[in-house]
Amino acid sequence: MTTNDKLDIIVFGATGFTGKLVSEYLNKQYGTSGEVRWGIAGRNNDKLQAVAEELELGDIPVVIADSEDKASLDAMVSRCKVVLNTAGPYMKYGSSVVESCARLGTDHVDLNGEPLWMHEVLTKYEETARKSGARIVFSCGFDSIPSDLGVQFLQEQAQAKYSRPFSRVKCRVKRVVGEVSGGSVASFGETMEVLKTQPELFTVFTNAFALTPGFEGPAQPAGDKEIFEEDLNSWSGPFIMAAINPKNVHRTNLLLGHPYGEDFVYDEMAILNKDSSGNTENAEFSFDMSLKPGEGPSKEKQEAGYYEMWFVGSNNEGDSLTAIITGDQDPGYGSTSKIISEAAVFLSKKPKDEDGGILTPASAMGSELREKLVANAGLTFSISETIPTSSTLSR
Fold first, then answer.
1. Same domain (yes/no): 152, 281
2. Whether pLDDT at 324 is above 60
């Protein structure tokens, strides 16, 4: 099969909660023929056919593949340019898919927020992917594209305005409204189980430089307790995605030759709203541990969700700028399904003019993907000379 005969994208895990959202978006945005040639894949033909019928996908290619069946994975991987993998938990089901892609030279994007799995994949398959030309791109959803591209956007602005990057960037999540799905709960549970049986991996889980082998930068803020930040004039507290996003940001810095500097310090926290008594108001992000795989927020709740993130940059010379990134739907599903779809489409069209490897969104796609996300996926990227005093969203 020649490259021209291949599908651009195969959505693996298309019968799952997020896989269906991705398929729905690709169909709405690109249809099932023409500019983007794509198909759906999973273990069960009847379930795949039901998805195709429910979403009115017509005669879309349907591929049977099982993460425990190497031959079926190789056949799927050989049939496309990019595997868009939504089948998690990745620690359970993802490694064999990445291995096939890395060995056969097929690009791969995923939604993972599983740092222990990422560290394992990096150790096992980095060299194989480099040799084959496969671009294995971690975390192409809410974790970690807004963070990874947000920092890159801010540093580009700093370089243009001050001719130097910011050595310190704070990501502060101003607003986030949304819910998790059963798949996310399962991924979180799998990570916790591994840490119970292999407590020595806790150092990987907590190390901001876990994905930068051979490089260890300066100590990074822990972000594990509430603090009052005078520059923001507000309280900040722990943010659940801080276990994964900074690792990808630091890997981007490494892969691009440290454009942010080798002394770069980065952390993520949530801005806390305090009432008149000093009590913290409940966050509007629901993490229901009782959810099962396949369960998640309704379409109405996805469309009602949104988020706003501030990236506050500074350096020892007194320079400062703030990048503001917003998303127009709930972060985990409505927005994520659009983000990863656009990442897969972009990667499928981008020539392989460099070696492959285990990459990050910013190192693999950068500002060009940012433009696509603004045009198609409901994200905004803006810059402020000062730190905002209130949310820029009107909701």
1. yes
2. yes
Residues 235 and 206 in one domain: yes
Nearest to 184 by CA among 344, 330, 362, 28: 330
Global confidence as pTM: 0.93
Model pLDDT for residues 245-273, shown as the tens digit of each residue = 999 999 999 999 999 999 999 999 999 97
Number of domains within the chain: 2
Query: Is residue 275 over pLDDT 60?
Result: no
More confident residue, 181 or 220: 220
Q: What's residue 157's pLDDT?
A: 98
pLDDT value, residue 142: 93
- pLDDT exceeds 60 at position 281: no
Predicted pLDDT of residue 288: 61
Domain around 257: 145-330+369-384
The tokens describing 115, both together, are 């740092």
Domain boundary among 104, 137, 170: 137
Q: What is the 3-state secondary structure (H, E, C) of the chain?
A: CCHHHCEEEEEECCCCHHHHHHHHHHHHHHCCCCCCCEEEEECCHHHHHHHHHHCCCCCCCEEECCCCCHHHHHHHHHCEEEEEECCCCHHHHCHHHHHHHHHHCCEEEECCCCHHHHHHHHHHHHHHHHHHCCEEECCCECCEHHHHHHHHHHHHHHHHHHCCCCCEEEEEEEEEEEECCHHHHHHHHHHHHHHHHCHHHHHHHHCCCCCCCCCCCCCCCCCCCCEEECCCCEEEECCHHHHCHHHHHHHHHHHCCCCCCCCCEEEEEEEECECCCCCECCCCEECCCCCCCCCCCCHHHHHHCEEEEEEEEECCCCCEEEEEEEECCCHHHHHHHHHHHHHHHHHHHCCCCCCCEEECHHHHCHHHHHHHHHHHCCEEEEEECCCCCCCCCCC
Residues 67 and 151 in one domain: no
Q: Higher-confidence residue: 199 or 73? A: 73
In a domain, 346, yes or no: no
